[in-house]
Amino acid sequence: MPESYIKRILNARIYDLAVETPLENARLLSQRTGNHVLLKREDLQPVFSFKIRGAYNKLLQLTEQERARGVIAASAGNHAQGLALGAHHLGVKATIVMPRTTPAIKVDAVRAHGARVVLHGDNFDEAQVHAHKLVEDKGLTYIHPYDDPDVIAGQGTVAMEILRQCPKHIDAIFVPVGGGGLCAGIAAYVKYVRPDIKVFAVESEESACLQAAIEKQRRVTLSQVGIFADGVAVGQIGKETFRVLRNIIDGVITVTPDEICAGIKDIFEDTRSIAEPAGGVSVAGLKKYVAEHQITGQSLVAIDSGANINFDRLRYIAERTEIGEKREAILAVTIPERPGAYKEFCKALGKRNITEFNYRYADTDQARIFVGVQVGNGGEDRLELIEQLRNEGYEVVDMTENELAKLHIRYMVGGHAPVGDEMVFRFEFPERPGALYNFLNQVAGRWNISLFHYRNHGSASGRVLVGMQVPHGERGDVRKFLNELHYPFWEETQNEAYQFFLG
Fold this sequence. Notes:
The protein has helices at residues 3-10, 27-33, 51-61, 64-69, 78-90, 104-112, 124-138, 149-165, 181-193, 209-216, 239-245, 257-271, 277-293, 314-324, 341-349, 380-391, 403-407, 435-443, 475-485, 496-501, and strands spanning 23-25, 36-41, 71-74, 94-98, 116-119, 141-142, 172-176, 198-204, 251-255, 299-304, 328-336, 354-359, 366-374, 395-398, 422-430, 448-455, 461-469, 489-491. With 503 residues, the chain is of the alpha/beta class. Strand 3 (71-74), helix 5 and strand 4 (94-98) form a beta-alpha-beta unit. It starts with a helix and ends with a helix.
């Protein structure tokens, strides 16, 4: 199967626009992992992403008639910029349909490359439906972001460069996966030319559509897709990419948003560049593979796929990095409500640094504190700390992996309130004008809102925590209402972080 792509990849004449990016030694990451780690710097492409390769290669394969009709794509970012620049270079008219939630920096970048931007829908799927409608109405040529052999071949030139730049032995290559175009191109070339090299697909656990397809042995559509790593936030692996990948990759590794944040920091420390979340995915997967299999002394390559990130998101990434590196423990601790109790607790922590400390008076007997504590690299020190505190008589709940605690509760510690019939839900609202009003307008007159917390993370989606007073007999009604609202949500009424501090 891979051999069918070799000629396409070798004939991809993309270098009058795309550039051959360096394969750089990641010195610090190599030292920390005990391996020779190399970063393929696709963030240095003209549009700060590998997507220029596939988009431009597809444009070059079009007939004169197809180019004359104009091209169109649905994209929230990197493919849009790559196609816009490629079309401008060739004098082809380009239309890009982008969700209304797309950050302004990406919309402006696409327009700067000469493309016409149409803002439609709240997500990629809605934008794509509208793009296909424009294809039917206006006869435009649709350029798929990943599920197209010419696009896959363009991305495959990354592998051709890696093997030329590193003629010595390579043990494994780690590739971020969304729709699968980059991984399919790299795997097809590598497994034909150097089948001894392992190729691992790395997915965000919030959008692990390839892993789901491999487990089911067929393409599936995820019921929910998290968009923190927006460059790989795809709900279904491509048809052609799955055909290529299902039997030739050496495994799929899934990583958490916290681990992705830590990968972004690793790239920064070695290159002084800031990767987008999708760019941190492969490094996170590499580190997870090394840790789980106790790998040392190997030559490992990670694809830094892009650097299109909103500056606003850096705050969130910085907050989550220490947890992703397992260097911070988030704990809920009960201490006596009496003078000197804080001092005793700090003494019990020893010489560990406190990174966060939140408290609100609750009653005369006990105080419940939300505390962040710096721990050693790895989870062992965190477990030892918890055991030590419990041995000294403290009630401790580990909240390091609790999303509600990390996203909301840490900013809301203010004591319990006598709220009856409260149900609590965590939402992702589309980050656009009217999203909150739409929610409130539909709730109005039905259920009283008893709690609300929102923080902007510089992404297309806002993280919102809502409490509502719902009589027991109407709980089925509220769940039905929320399902029909089509905002991703999770019920958190029984979450221990909520119960511990606010319930």
